[in-house]
Amino acid sequence: MFTKLLKYEFKSVGKWYFAMNIAVLAVSVLFGLTAAKKFANPESDAVYFTVSGTNGLFIAFLFLALGILISVTWIATLFIIINRFSKNIFGREGYLTLTLPVSAHQLILSKLLMSFIWIVFNSFVLVIGVFLIILPITGPKEILSNLILIVQQITLSEWLLYLLWLILAILSSTLMIYLAIAIGQLFLDKRKLMGFLAYFLIFIIVELINQSFIETISASSSAFLTYYIVCYLIQIIIYYWGICYILQKKINIQ
């Protein structure tokens, strides 16, 4: 049943979402090729980023369009994360969702996993987009040499710490949103406003706690990463069980 929940979550995302991400890649390619032509012109060495002339205006337009597209895709990802959890459980769809032979854990984990996938997918598109911009300008050899240099400067244990930190940061941030939504639905009126206020209250409390402990941490990057990994693990446990408690004991479908 868990796999069916995942399939349903995947199908619930419209084709428009994937179309926007494809548009980001397409504009990135066009921007990279156009910028490479301008950089290759020896007469424009001192004015790479000026907007004088047709070519400069076109580059400025592509840069603006790319920035808007990237912003819209991230806003869309956030909208999907919030909307799928809020409407599917606490909205009218909740009457059907809660009759399914699944536990609260399966509901939370299915939505959390799909939210994680959308965030990773969006991040992957952004990284590929940056690569497609840089590739025509610098060439593959320079990109490869810089990547090798970066990899050599960071140890394997540090890479693993960065990866674990990133995964836990995404999960913690998503569960914080879910918990705020769940708290908001405890109120009879103005649920969205209450959820919004709950999110900022949780955020402020977490930041105050972090600030009180962060000064005692050594200046090394591994110490900071280890500290935040532990913090994220604690937050994930608290957020997760808070959501479970509300779903099992305090559910209030609108």
Q: Main attributes?
A:
254 residues; mainly alpha; 2 domains; 9 helices; globular; transmembrane helix; transmembrane
Short description:
By secondary structure, the chain is mainly alpha-helical. The protein contains 9 helices and no strands.
Q: Over all CA atoms, what is the radius of gyration?
A: 22 Å
Could you report the average pLDDT, rounded to the nearest whole number?
A: 83
One letter per element, helices H and strands E, the order comes to HHHHHHHHH
- Largest β-sheet summary: none
Q: Label the overall shape.
A: globular
Helical amount: over 70%
Spans of at least 5 consecutive residues with low confidence: 44-49
**In what range is the share of β-strand residues?**
under 5%
As an assembly, this protein is single chain
Structural class: mainly alpha
Number of distinct beta strands = 0
Q: How many discrete structural domains?
A: 2
Distance between the termini: 25 Å
Helix tally?
9
Keywords: Membrane, Transmembrane, Transmembrane helix
Transmembrane segments: 16-36, 56-82, 116-139, 159-181, 193-213, 225-247
